[in-house]
Amino acid sequence: MEIEEFRKNGYKLIDWIADYYSGIEKFPVKSQVNPREIYNSIPVEAPADSEDFDEILKDFDDKILKGITHWQQPSFFAYFNANTSFPSILGELLTSAIGAQCMIWDTSPAAAELEEKVCEWIKKASNLPGDWHGVIQDTASTATLCALLMARERHSNFMVNKSGFEAGARYIIYCSTEAHSSIEKDVKIAGFGSDQIRKIAVDDQFAMISQALDQQIQKDLAEDFIPLFVVSAVGTTGSHAIDPVSAIGEICRKHGLFHHVDAAHAGNAAILPEFRWMLDGLELADSYVFNPHKWMFTNFDCSLFYTNDKETLIKTFEILPEYLKTDSGKEVNNYRDWGIQLGRRFRALKLWFVLRSYGLEGIRAKFREHISLTQQFTQQLKDDGRFEILAPVPLNLVCFWFKPVGEVSLENVNELNEKLEHSINKTGKAYITHTKLNGKYTLRVCIGQTNVEKKHVDDLFKLLTEQVEIL
């Protein structure tokens, strides 16, 4: 493709994107295709000769688009959001166009220095500890793994990196029973083994019981285990529960454990002064992560990881072969040493576009609108009388179920709610998901899509009541 052809096709693609967003609500939110339908529609072999761009785009429309679940549809209420926005799309377009591999400062100074600056902007906007240092990782899962490896190396004086685990190493990792599944995956990757996880009980609001953590640590110490690492959750995936960060931090300080705070979704709300209470005690932690690619209108992937010990972070990952040595290394951040990946994308650019295009007050206004819509939806469920709220609603996630009148077994109620979830998603008008809380099949509605409005939430409530009538 020559440059003028690229220019012509680029205009077509921008027009396509604009038309897509103009008409996005005509698509079913959740893809309605059957398994293997897309796969079987694609030729067995790659084309031997070049094909026209218009033909490729037509196949995208005809074959690929029907297999897309439309995360940017305003009636997407599933999981936690993976939002984007027009400024983010344009920033990502430039990132793709430049095609820079930003592993060290020399390979693109602007990438390294803009990353440092936007991390500082967010740190100040969220009132994070002033002496913390930030880096952009791909996901919170990776950030938690980085924190876990830091803890391992700090405790072992970097001997695990050098010599591997000694036989019988008895490190223990702690999280709540509601913590994200990625923690167990990270523990496996880091070489500890899932048997080394202690899942701490939660209270009636699904937050970790700090006293239970303290008791478990003392029990493990008495049995000659080595308590190493605690993950506090600020906004669990299942119910948005907020662990007592300050109390957990005090326990970690008392026993010498590394304390990591996972606020992947809820941490976005820390730019709202009225929600900074969620992070009370963060100054006692060792590291912290949240994802602008969830709620802050910045497309995937963009995860901000902060630590108060960048020296340990760098020493954990630093490898310096001759071909990566530079004269500038002591004056700048070479982010290849701040995480797992050597090769790095210019993730800071799209976040910079978002922060400058919306401004902090614009982002705060959108967040407050989403939280207000969530409270209105919660009240609609309560007023209806047929639904029960199953967890606190501090931000923009509502956990509930349909509870029929009369004596109905838990098994039957669970079956009804599973049927309700599937019936809503099959309409294509909205997309919701579920979890289980205390054995109850719990419907989850997250109201945080970039372009969601009151009419979309009202339509969801209407759809819920319609589907309940035909259960």
Topology:
Blueprint: H1 3-22, H2 37-41, H3 53-64, H4 86-98, H5 109-125, E1 133-137, H6 140-156, H7 159-163, E2 171-176, H8 182-189, E3 197-200, H9 210-222, E4 226-233, H10 245-255, E5 258-262, E6 287-290, H11 292-295, E7 303-307, H12 310-317, H13 348-384, E8 387-389, E9 397-402, H14 410-427, E10 433-437, E11 440-446, H15 454-469
Parallel strand pairs: 2-3, 2-4, 4-5, 5-6
Antiparallel strand pairs: 1-7, 6-7, 8-9, 9-11, 10-11
Q: Could you explain how this protein is built, in words?
A:
With 471 residues, the chain is of the alpha/beta class. It has a domain at 92-354: 3-Layer(aba) Sandwich (Aspartate Aminotransferase, domain 2), CATH 3.40.640. 43% of the residues lie in helices and 12% in strands. The protein contains 15 helices and eleven strands. The protein has helices spanning 3-22, 37-41, 53-64, 86-98, 109-125, 140-156, 159-163, 182-189, 210-222, 245-255, 292-295, 310-317, 348-384, 410-427, 454-469, and strands at residues 133-137, 171-176, 197-200, 226-233, 258-262, 287-290, 303-307, 387-389, 397-402, 433-437, 440-446. A seven-stranded mixed sheet has the order 1-7-6-5-4-2-3, with helices on both faces. It has a four-stranded antiparallel sheet with strand order 8-9-11-10, covered by helices on one side. A hairpin with a 2-residue loop joins strand 10 (433-437) and strand 11 (440-446). Helix 4 packs antiparallel against helix 13 (348-384) and helix 6 crosses helix 8. The longest helix has 37 residues, at 348-384. It is globular and about 60 Å long. The protein starts with a helix and ends with a helix. The model has no long low-confidence stretch (mean pLDDT 94).
